[in-house]
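tool=predict chain=A
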Amino acid sequence: MLEIKNLKKTFNKGTINEKAALTGVSLTLNDGDFCTIIGGNGAGKSTILNAIAGVWPVDSGSIVLNGHDITWLPEHKRAKYIGRVFQDPMMGTAATMQIDENLALAARRGQSRFLKPGTTEAERTHYVDLLRSLDLGLEDRLTSKVGLLSGGQRQAITLLMASLKKPDLLLLDEHTAALDPKTAKKVLDLSDLIIQENQLTALMVTHNMKDAIAHGNRLIMMSDGNIIYDVSGEEKENLQVTDLLHKFEEAGSSDAVNDRLVLN
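tool=predict ok
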């Protein structure tokens, strides 16, 4: 489903702030893989998601998604292939628009725009069913402005929007980091459900070692712009937080294990 080869990206080249963010990353995801990414600050976790999403061009390497070479495709043209949920609950939705209007926008991603009613009755019925599955009481609030919702409710809607068109790849970029623990668990459980029901391929960046172990069928650890550990199957199921800490130490990256990683 996703094949990344020798991806490199350096920011601020030729200056004192030069930073090699990706140093030759190669990664292959099979169809249906749900892969979590763990690593310290500056490890390259969000950088690789931004590279896949096309936020900025990479220096070299290739990105092939479901047979399409998207390496040099602009971000807006990747939208029909990729769904994304950001860390900030404010980023994935239009705050001044209604819930049904936001969902309608997501349903039309990648399509040409025409002058016609924003949502049909059939669509609204479908959206009610989708919102009911969230169990957040939003099915009766189709006309509520999204900006009036809580962070957890907004992330849940963003999840629906990102998966509505069943993208080839779903990117979850620390999408529970801004939420309280109870709400974060709810959103993570919803993520699992949506990925499983829609049989999506997904990449989830997290600072939480326990979440990285508990979710998905595969885990990779990044350090200094590259992948230093890749585990799946039974080995991942038996993984403990102490094992991840040992891997950081083996790679000489124990200084990257900051308070946020440990305390989470």
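The CA atoms of residues 222 and 228 lie 6 Å apart. Residues 2-81+167-263 form a domain with the Rossmann fold fold (CATH 3.40.50.300).
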